[in-house]
Amino acid sequence: MRQILELLERDAQLSHETIATMTGLPVAEVSEAIAAWEASGAIRRYKAVVDWDAVDEDPTSERVTAFIDVSLTPARGVGFDDVAARIARFEEVRSVYLVSGTHDLRCTVIAPTIRAVSDFVSQKLSTIDRVQSTATHFVLKTYKRDGDAFTAQEADHRLPVTP
Questions:
Q1: What is the total count of domains within the chain?
Q2: What is the pTM of this model?
């Protein structure tokens, strides 16, 4: 059954019939499993991975992505969970992870400008109780996201082999 989820994660547009063919399971069983995962919340949503740099509709529109590392003081009984949940509620925040290393949380933030990211950090994030420090890293170029490469594949320069 895990194979069904892996296929959907790679391509959410696969039909139940295609998944059944790929897994060797009956279509009814695939449909029932997907419906159950959707109802339980195991499948959160279906989405498209967009290469925004390739979208040429408005060259003046800007999208700035930043990774923000956050150091916290943990609280008894909740650790970092309450602060992570509060950060996750901000509209600019796309993801929040508890990580190992010198910082406790890593947040992905998307905003229209660098100034908007700066305002988010200085006015919203750093004012939360128990936030000790932040470190902001701006994305300069995306090479791969969600398993999809954003660069052109190199041509195969190998010589053909003939029998």
A1: 2
A2: 0.71
